[in-house]
């Protein structure tokens, strides 16, 4: 009798189990939902101490007034306060469009901007050069469908708030974003508008929407009733993950602990888990809706989106016409940035950089 006909032998099931273990571990990632990064207590404490430093610096050294543009910029006056734009690059790969951004920054004076890069440390990247050299801030791992992208954005905001009190606007950018206008066009837009209305706070440019077909599922992604009482469903908002915030609002974001307590919880429903598209619009609409334009400056194409990813532009699509089209918006101002662009777009974009993109 062959040995296999003795099912009572304890050796056989044990062997089968042992043999199938490697197969299980091989297949598990495609069968089980992938494990998501969570916010650990040490990471949270690191961030809190950074935020605390930025908050106390802001309350001790600066009043809101100092972040308004000077209305009397006289020739050669060195005492004139020049507000800066802080560019916050959030990436988990090389910055594909670094040469294009170099051109963007090369057209201006270094005292009008700062650059900060948050790069996922688990992914090796080529050390950036030129104006990007040494701009990587202490970073932690990031992952979609987890609260880590929100943490990374808050870390960038806090680092920039702390680093330079002249940072008046904070623009979040990814490695797939491109500029649609010159630096000077953006700078004039952000700061000149306010000369007309000196008593107004700077506006933040962040999309804030109260309606979306998937909003209810996204609200309940951490379980039913988990978000209450801090955030009721009618306070829950959605918007673009990429924004340009005023200093005042950047500070509000890192001061927040009440909403973050809920948004940092891991999702049960990973399919509806996009914390970075909800945390910022929800918080700012609750804190200061009047101070937000409710439009983002970053164009994104959601037509035929796949798996939560917007349309990704590829090389053959790049043309002067595309740049002109992407600038057009339904608000009273043009879009300043666009995503998502695949790395193969770099060369065609460089070819039209001076003649089209940075011409205005
Ligand atoms: C930017 O300017 C610097 C210094 O003027 C120069 O070395 C560099 O090549 C320029 N970069 C680009 C991309 O034009
Ligand atoms: C948006 O993406 C779709 C394909 O998904 C494309 O057909 C359309 O031209 C794009 N729109 C713009 C303005 O680029
Ligand atoms: C402007 O609004 C219309 C109507 O809602 C919409 O179809 C169109 O895509 C919008 N255009 C842009 C550039 O957002």
Automatic annotation (TrEMBL):
UniProt superkingdom: Eukaryota
Ranges annotated as spanning the membrane: 12-32
**Topology class, membrane:** Single-pass type II membrane protein
* Locations listed in the record: Membrane
UniProt entry tagged with the keyword Thylakoid: no
**A cellular component annotation (GO) from this entry:** membrane
Q: What keywords does the record list, in alphabetical order?
A: Glycoprotein, Glycosyltransferase, Membrane, Transferase, Transmembrane, Transmembrane helix
- Please tell me whether the keyword Glycoprotein is annotated for this protein: yes
Q: Any idea which GO molecular function terms this record carries?
A: glycosyltransferase activity
Which Pfam families did the record assign? Branch
Q: Which PANTHER family match?
A: CORE-2/I-BRANCHING BETA-1,6-N-ACETYLGLUCOSAMINYLTRANSFERASE FAMILY PROTEIN-RELATED, DUF4005 DOMAIN-CONTAINING PROTEIN
What is the name of the protein in this document?
A: Core-2/I-branching beta-1,6-N-acetylglucosaminyltransferase family protein
Lineage summary: Eukaryota, Viridiplantae, Streptophyta, Embryophyta, Tracheophyta
């Amino acid at each position: 009798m062959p040995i296999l006909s003795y099912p009572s032998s304890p050796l056989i099931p044990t062997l089968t189990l042992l043999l199938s273990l490697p197969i299980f571990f091989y297949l598990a990632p495609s069968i089980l939902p992938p494990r998501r990064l969570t916010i650990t207590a040490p990471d949270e404490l690191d961030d809190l101490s950074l935020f605390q430093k930025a908050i106390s610096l802001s309350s001790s050294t600066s009043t809101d007034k100092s972040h308004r543009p000077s209305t009397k910029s006289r020739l050669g006056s060195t005492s004139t306060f020049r507000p800066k734009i802080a560019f916050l690059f959030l990436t988990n790969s090389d910055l594909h469009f670094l040469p294009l951004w170099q051109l963007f920054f090369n057209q201006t004076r270094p005292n009008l901007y700062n650059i900060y890069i948050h790069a996922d440390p688990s992914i090796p990247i080529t050390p950036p050069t030129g104006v990007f050299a040494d701009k990587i801030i202490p970073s932690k791992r990031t992952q979609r469908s987890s609260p880590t992208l929100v943490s990374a954005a808050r870390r960038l905001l806090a680092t920039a708030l702390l680093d330079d009190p002249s940072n008046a606007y904070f623009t979040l950018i990814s490695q797939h974003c491109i500029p649609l206008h010159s630096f000077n066009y953006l700078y004039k837009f952000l700061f000149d508008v306010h000369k007309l209305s000196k008593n107004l706070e700077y506006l933040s440019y962040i999309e804030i929407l109260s309606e979306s077909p998937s909003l209810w599922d996204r609200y309940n992604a951490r379980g039913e009733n988990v978000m209450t009482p801090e955030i009721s469903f009618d306070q829950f908002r959605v918007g673009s993950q990429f924004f340009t915030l005023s200093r005042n609002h950047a500070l509000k974001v890192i001061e927040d602990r009440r909403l973050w307590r809920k948004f940092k919880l891991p999702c049960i429903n990973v399919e509806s888990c996009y914390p970075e598209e909800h945390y910022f619009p929800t918080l700012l609409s609750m804190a200061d809706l009047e101070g937000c334009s409710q439009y983002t400056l970053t164009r994104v194409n959601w037509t035929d989106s796949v798996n939560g990813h917007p349309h990704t532009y590829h090389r053959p699509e790049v043309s002067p016409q595309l740049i002109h089209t992407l600038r057009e918006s339904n608000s009273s101002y043009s879009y300043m940035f666009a995503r998502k662009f695949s790395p193969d777009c770099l060369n065609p974009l460089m070819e039209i950089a001076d003649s089209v993109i940075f011409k205005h």
